[in-house]
Amino acid sequence: MAYDEKLATRVRIALAGEPSVEKKMMGGLCVMVRGHMCVGVTNEKLMVRTGAEGHSKALAMKHVKPMDFTGKPLKGFVFVLPPGCGTQRSVDAWVKRALTFTATLPAKSK
Asked: Quick one: DSSP state of residue 74?
């Protein structure tokens, strides 16, 4: 399954200066920060880790839907549809949200 390279480039730009690791997984690209899934690109959608507390707030925003790979939504993660992640500014805001949450998690050792 392919993913949107232009969206992946916007994610990379938003993460510039952040120590991150890219992994191909879940049919797309996942970016790990401090050992935790942070953001990713699946097809043309942006995957954002919001955490349980930020989940409802994110879902209330336009162009956002629950992250669902198996028919069951995964709490703490959302998909942002193309109209909500089509500009660098919008991707920057979503990446910042994900980084803010992942900063609350203990770093995983290698």
From this structure: -
For residues 12-34, average pLDDT: 90
Question: E strands of the chain, at which residues?
Answer: 20-25, 28-33, 36-42, 45-49, 64-66, 77-80
First to last CA, the chain: 28
Give 66-104 pLDDT, tens digit per residue.
Answer: 998 778 888 899 999 999 999 999 999 999 999 999 999
Label residue 104 exposed, middle or buried (CB < 10 Å: 0-12, 13-18, 19+).
exposed
| Alpha carbons 84 and 101: distance in angstroms, whole number | 19
**Angstrom distance (rounded) from CA 6 to CA 34:** 24
pTM higher than the cut 0.85: yes
